[in-house]
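Recall the central idea of this unit: under ordinary conditions, the amino acid sequence of a chain determines the structure it adopts. In this exercise we apply that idea directly, starting from the sequence alone.
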Amino acid sequence: MYSSLITPQTVNEHLEDPNWRFFDCRYVLTEPEKKQSEFAESHLPGATYVHVNHNLAGPRIPGKTGRHPLPKITELSKTFAAWGISSSTQVVVYDDTGGAYAVRLWWMLRWLGHDSVAVMDGGWPRWLKEERPVSADIFIPESVNFNAKPREHWSVSAEDICNYFDNPEVRIFDARSRDRFRGENETLDPVAGHIPGAVSAPFADNLDADGNWKSKSELRKMYLELLDGSPVEQAVTYCGSGITACHNILAMCYAELGDSRLYSGSWSDWITNPERPVV
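Accordingly, the structure predicted from this sequence is:
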């Protein structure tokens, strides 16, 4: 079972395996439909396209939710079943931005109890660079039974975050860029800044200069320093809308530190209530 990262070579060796499913999560926040068009032209053989807005998020309620609220578990389970994901399925997810969007599907599957899911290291760019097979064919999966076993404690709310302010055991990580953490260059959300007590931990720091994930030992060292003695199981990561925060959760998992938690609403949810503190 592969449950964190997987190499393109290993993926290539299993393209014909009927128990494997491949999902293309390429996405551009400012051009939401662009990558689906690119997928139609070329993708991994047998891959299914996953749209962040349509498939990995529930309806947004302006002023009440973040930009990408989690779907209802019942609806998400139906989606996974329609995609052909059963308890015996090995899932591989990828994108073209270092896993920034693929990690959301990785996290959501594990959140519902499906651990056999891995992010392809290097993603689509590395797949192309290594001259591996591509296809324009549309794969139609057979629907199966998806048995959700939710780990609901893996997702925390804004109220939970408020309750953690005086708890030194809970480390809160901000996966956005350092400038957004400082309240600079905020172009996505109407309020700039960060949650009081949060530590800047940009998800981009999990990658090397080539867009591949850093080594297990490098990530382990980095996150042990960030955790500063606090338990990983109590750690919470947020970002702008609950997408790239999952990158840090995967990094800690891959580094064999354990499973941390997600503030799924993230910054865009936090600022919907003007009474919540901002620094």
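The chain has two domains: 5-129, 152-270.
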